[in-house]
Prior knowledge:
The chain is 22% helix and 35% strand. A hairpin with a 4-residue loop joins strand 36 and strand 37. Helix 9 crosses helix 11.
Amino acid sequence: MTAAPERTAFQLIAEERRHRPAVVQLARSLCLAAQAEPYFLRSARLRFAPDSSTGLEARLYFSPLVEAADSRALVLYPEVSAELRRELYDHDLDLLGSVRDFTLAAHRSAPPLVRGFEELLWSATIGPPPTEAEVERTLTPLFRQVLAEGPTAAEASRWILRFLPRLPEAVRESPPAWRLQVMAAERLGMEPPRGLLTRADADEVRTVRALVHTEVDIGVRASAHGLVLSRPPERGALVCGASGAGRVQLRLRSALPGAQWHELDLYDGEYAALGLSVAAETRADGTLLATQAELGGTLLCARAGHRAAAATTVDGRTVLRIDDGESVLTVELPELPEQPRLLTVADAGPAATAVVSAKGLHVVTSAVDGTADAVLHPLSVQPTAVGWSRTRERGVLCLATGNDVLLVDGGDPGRTLGTLTHPAPVVRLWCSVRAGQVAVADAEGGVTVHCLAGAPADGPERWQQGPGGGVTALCGDPRAGSGSGSTSGSVVWCTADGQVYGMDAAAADVSAGATGGVTLLGTLPAPASSLALLSDVGLVVAADGGDRLLRLAWPEGGPVTAVPMPFRVQEVHPATGGLLLVSGHGGEVEIRAEDGRTHLLTPGPVPAPPDGAGPDWPRDSVGLVLSEHDTVLPAGVRRWGIGHVCLPASLPPDSEEFATLLAGAREQGLRVLAELAPPDEDSAHGELLGRAYDLLEESLDGLRLGDADRWPTPLLTRLRHLLDAYPQTAVVTTGSPHVPLGPGHLTLNAPPEPTTAPLPSDADSWWSLPDGLPHPRASLLLALPGCHEVPASLLLETPALRPLLAARAAQLALRHGGVELLSTGSARVTAVRREHAGQAVLCLTSTADVPLTARVPLPQATAGTGPTGPTERIELIEIARDLPTHPPDAPPQVLRPAAPDGLIPVELDAGHTRWFRIRTTTHPPPDGPTDPFAPPTAR
Length: 939
C-alpha cells in the first residue's frame, strides 16, 4: 500500500472504523467491484447505509482506504478490498451475498472485462482457488478484446495492466493471467512488468508477445548518410513488411564484417532518422579486414604512423578511442553531444591527440601506465585544420587560422611559440612529428612545405600549380624521403580540377632549398576529398565521396585505377604495412523484423534529375494503372513496390467513386495521377481543359495523357500554359506529343526487347508493362531499366510478379543501374546484370518448359584452392523469386562457384525467375549472430 506503507490493511481499516465506522460500512459494499462509478457508489449508499447523507460518499472519497478517485470512478486499495472481503466471508456471509447480488445488478451493463474481473473476485472469495481452466474461461472475453485491433484493444490492455494485479494471488499468479498481462503490454508497445518476465524464459515470453502481432508496414527512405524509417510509411518511401503491435521491434546493422545489431522500437506515428557512419581497415585493393559501423551515430577518424583515433558520437555522447599500436584507451569527452569537427594524432614522439569541437580544443595525452589526461582549452577562433609536428627543441600543435599557422606548445593555444604566415587563407594541413615537417595548402591553390626541425637557415618552399583552383586534399609520408638521406617526407595534393601532384623527397630535398621535384601524377575523375600516400607499395590512394578508391602509381604517376568499396568513402588515411584506414557513410543495411523477415537495402546516391526537370519522384516510382472496367484499388499495393496510382479517364473528378479512390490512395500513401483521354473530332477543347483544371485543383500529383500523338497542337499548347501554373505537377504521356509539356514530362514508349543487345540504359526511355503478357516475358522486362507503370489487372492475375516489383523497389541497381546481358549456356535462360553505386544484381529468367540449371559466368568468380582451402571471389545472395508462396521469412539462399572455371550453377524452375545480389568476398557479410532477437546464451 502506497498511502501508508507502515500500516497494514487490517490496521488501516481498524483505525478508520474507530473514527468513522460509516465509511468502513460503505467501503464494504464496494469490495467485490472492480471500480465504483458515481452511480454505483450512490446506489450502494442508499442500499447499505440508507440513513446516511451524501456527505458519507465524500468522506469515503477522501479516506485513506481509497487508492484513486476522480469524477469517473473510485478504486479501493487492493489490500483493503481483500481484507474487507475476508471480514465478510468470516463474519457475515449474508451481507457478502447481498453485496454480490448488488454488484451483479449494478454492473449488469458494464463492459465484459469489468464483469469478468468481478467474477474472478467472487470465485476466489467464496471457495477454493479457481483452477487454471476456470480462470482462462473467465478471462476469455479479455483475451478476445486484446487480440482485436484498434482503440478497443488498447483500452482493454490498459485496463488489464491496471486491474489484473489487483486480483487475489491465486488468480493473478495463474498462467492465463500471466499470458494476458504480457499480451496487453505488447499491445500497448510496453515492456511487461519485470515481475512477469522472471516467471518464464525469453522464448516463452517471445511466443506470447507474438500472439498480438499483426502485419505492419514500415517505410524506409534513403537519406544523404543513412536511412529514415517511418510508421506509417511516408510518401515516396519503400514499404517493408514487419510484425508488431503497439511497437515494432527492429534490428538493423551494416552488412559489413564486424557490424553490430542496432535496436530500434518504432511506434505508430513515429519516424527515425539513422545515419550510417563506417570506418574500415582495408588493403589497397579494397579488401576489408575490419570494420566499425555506427547506425544512428557518427564517426570521425584519424591515423598517423602506428597510431589511430576514432571519435564516436551516439545518443549525445562522444567517446574517443585511441590506439597506439599496443593498447587502446577509451576517453569520454564530457558535454560534447555533437560530432567533433577535427581530429588528429601524433605520428611519433609522446602519444598525443587533439580534438576540435564547438566547445574548444581537447588535448588528450597518454601516459605509460595506460591512463589518459584530457584537457579542454577554449578557442576564440575555430581552426580550419590541425596537426602535430615538432621543432628542433619540442613537439608543437599546429592550428590553422586565417592566413596563419600557429605553433603552440603542448597543445595549449595560450602558449604560442611561433607563426607561419601564408599569402592566402589556409585550408589544409599535413603535419609530421617524425619528419618535423608541416605542409600547408592555401585557398589560392598553393602548397608550402615548412621543415620545422631543419637548420635555422632552411626556409619554406611554396608551389603553385597553375589555375586549377584550391587544394581539396593534402597528405604526405614522413618515411618517403629516407632513400635520399633527407629528414623530410614527401607530399601529395589534389586540386579542384582533379589533378594530383606529388613532391618526392627523394627527388627534391626541401631542406636544401630545391625548387624542382613536383610531378603531375594524374587526373582524377572528380576532386579528391582525401588522399593517402603509401610509399611502401608505390601508390597514392584517393577518396572522392563515392563508392570506390582511386589509385595512382607513386612516384612516377600514370593512369587512374578504381577499386569498388561497399560504402561511400570520404576520408582515407595511410596505415602501417601498406594498409589503409578509410571512413565514410552509407553501404548496405540489413533490417530484421521480429518474425524473421530480412530486408537488404542500400542507401546510396540516386541520379539527380536534369536541371529544371520538375518533380523528381516520377523517375523513381512505378505506378499502378486502374482500368475503366475495374476501378478497385487493392489494399497494400505499396508492399508490391508501387509508388503511385493512375485513375482512369472514365471517372469524372466530381464523382463519388473518384473521391473514394482518391481518398483510398492517399490513405495508403500513394501519389495520384489522373488520366485524360484524347479528344475526338466533336470534343470541345474548353471542356477538356476544364476537366484538366478540375483535376489539378484536386491537388493531384500529375496527369496522364493517353495517345498523346492524337492531341491537337493548339490544345496541347493551351494545356502547357495551364500546367505552367502548377510547376510541381508531373505529366506522363503515352506516345510523343507534338508540343513539349514542361520539365516534369515523361514519355512512355514501347518496352524494349529483353533478349537482344544493346539494351537501353536507365536514361534512354520509359515504358509501361503491357497487359496480358506471358509471365516469363513480364519477369524479363521487370529486370530492365525504365519500367514506369504496370496494369492493375496484370498484378491481380499474376501475383508472382509482386515479389519482383517489391525487390525492384528495394534495389538501387534495379532502379537506376546500367544493364548487361550475360551468357548462360542456354538459349532458354536470359541473364541480366544490373549495377549502380557499388551494388550489383543478377536477374535470371527461364522460358523453358522443364526445370534446368544455368551456369553463369561472373568476373572473379573463381573456386580455386589456396593454402587454406577454396578461394571464392563471388557469391550470389537470393533477393527475390516469382513464387508468391515463397515464405517471406525464409533465409536467403547463397550460391558460390562450384568449379575452377568460375561458373556459378543456378537451378531454375520451368518458366520462372530468380534474382540475386552479387557480393564479392573482398566485402564479406557480417559475422555476428543471425537472429538478433534470440536471448543470449549462457556461458
